[in-house]
Specification:
about 325 residues; 2 domains; two-stranded antiparallel ribbon; Nitroreductase; alpha+beta; NADH Oxidase; 8 strands; 6-stranded antiparallel sheet; 9 helices
């Protein structure tokens, strides 16, 4: 039991003028064990608790404007999932069902084997021979820039993954001319990963991601650079396509992390102008659209973990229904 004087305002209670200001309030701190909360009987409660969420909501009218402006009247072709690909990946369904977002990472245990790191990045390359890219029938326009912190036998620093051959030239010409653009030692020949700068990038990654620790205590974090100007010349609807592609990249990283025994999470808050400044980008030829991070998770045992799809009727929770 914790006795805290002068803390009425902390819990949203208005004090009666007749109430002594130094009357203590008793709070029971929940530690995870089963316990019963008892209101104190030594004092009398006055007033009414303030409702939560009482502030007026901001009307973000620009969201509706963007939604309307980016509607595409053109419909793409639907692709069915290759049965041979599905049969070749029998462990995919359990990974999908166990996939969770990390809330925090342990910097002490986030060291990732080099080959695992390379395998994760290879899974991001567009290929008709691997899911989900076998059903992606739009141009490839997203290229990750990585802040590597804790990957075995890989120097920490800044790296770039060009997901198309043509993007190597455009990325290199758009970025800081002092970057190295060297293939890391042991990197597979088919993986267009380039070492740009060797440095301790943890503080930079954290600052660029709105000062969030998850960007620096992980094995690596990344920003997804989009071919922005050239894409939008085809129409405003491409704006949606760019975000669809970031979503696919993120989902692949989620599942790759689960398969490797670690965990990932998206980072939606970041300073895009500062990211561009770090990379030496001078215009919107490339635009940072989304960030992601992978590492060894710190599990918050205070949170209840429900089975996947527990909100659905039981007959729809079977793995074969996915």
């Amino acid at each position: 039991m914790l006795i805290l004087p002068h803390c009425w305002g902390w819990i949203g209670l208005k004090i009666s003028p007749m109430q002594k200001p130094n009357t203590p309030i008793c709070l029971r701190i929940h530690t995870g064990a089963a316990s019963t909360f008892h209101l104190p009987t030594v004092t009398q409660w006055y007033g009414k608790a303030n409702p939560l969420g009482g502030l007026p909501k901001h009307n973000w009218s620009i969201i509706d404007a963007v939604t309307t402006a980016t509607v595409s009247l053109r419909r793409g072709e639907w692709h069915s999932l290759s049965s041979s690909l599905a049969a070749a990946q029998p462990d995919l369904i359990p990974l999908i069902r166990q996939r969770r977002s990390a809330q925090a990472f342990s910097g002490k245990t986030s060291s990732l084997p080099r080959d695992t790191f390379f395998k994760m990045l290879e899974a991001l390359l567009p290929s008709a021979a691997q899911m989900p890219w076998d059903v992606w029938n739009l141009p490839t326009r997203l290229h990750p820039v990585l802040f590597v912190h804790r990957v075995e036998d890989i120097p920490p620093g800044l790296y770039a993954l060009s997901r198309t051959a043509a993007a190597v030239t455009t990325l290199r010409s758009a970025m800081n001319p002092d970057f190295l653009w060297q293939k890391p030692e042991g990197c597979p020949a088919n993986l267009p990963l380039f070492h740009l700068l060797e440095a301790d990038a943890r503080e930079a990654a954290r600052t660029l991601s709105c000062h969030q620790d998850i960007a620096s205590t992980s094995s690596f974090s990344l920003g997804m650079l989009a071919e922005f100007d050239s894409g939008l010349t085809e129409g405003a609807h491409v704006y949606r396509h760019l975000y669809w592609e970031t979503g696919l990249i993120g989902q692949v990283l989620y599942l790759q992390a689960e398969a490797a025994g670690v965990r990932g999470t998206g980072i939606g808050c970041f300073f895009d102008d500062s990211v561009h400044e770090v990379l030496g980008l001078r215009d919107t030829q490339f635009q940072s659209l989304y960030h992601f991070t992978v590492g060894s998770p710190v599990v918050d045992t205070r949170l209840e973990m429900l089975p996947p799809y527990s909100h659905l009727p039981e007959e729809r929770q079977a793995p074969e229904q996915l």
